[in-house]
Design a protein that fits this description.
With 144 residues, this protein is mainly beta. The protein is 8% helix and 14% strand. It has one domain. The longest helix has 11 residues. It binds zinc ion (ZN). The site of zinc ion has 8 residues, from loops.
Length: 144
Amino acid sequence: MLEVRWRRAADVISRLTTPPTPSRYDEDGYLPQACAITTERVTDFPFREELPAELRPRLEELVRETGDGGDAITRLAGWKLGGWPTWHLTHPMAFACGDCGTAMMLLFTVASDDETGVVVGRWGELRVFVCPADHRHAFQADLH
Ligand SMILES: [Zn+2]
């Protein structure tokens, strides 16, 4: 089960110094073990087929440099807030909001990663898409 909660920073008047222990540790492999979160700002770009044509040669150069073999710019290790979704398994597609039809945007990605010990499906990603028109509209999640 996946749950998305929205909070305003101004509404947070006290911080938890000891987060509660998830009640489903043993049965839900998507929950990481307790750890510290280290944030890192990265530059993210749309998937290669969605890039403007003038940027594609630079992308091909980046792919050669990294040896990634494909999606070197949207498929990042770790967990990602915002940014662009990868489409390394399928062609790019839009998720339409089930409430208003607006094209949804990527909110969060949980990528399989050795460092975090999280494995999603067959070494894939869990992605959460939300409606940019109204955060109260239902989110969509997929495994990619
Ligand atoms: Zn909507």
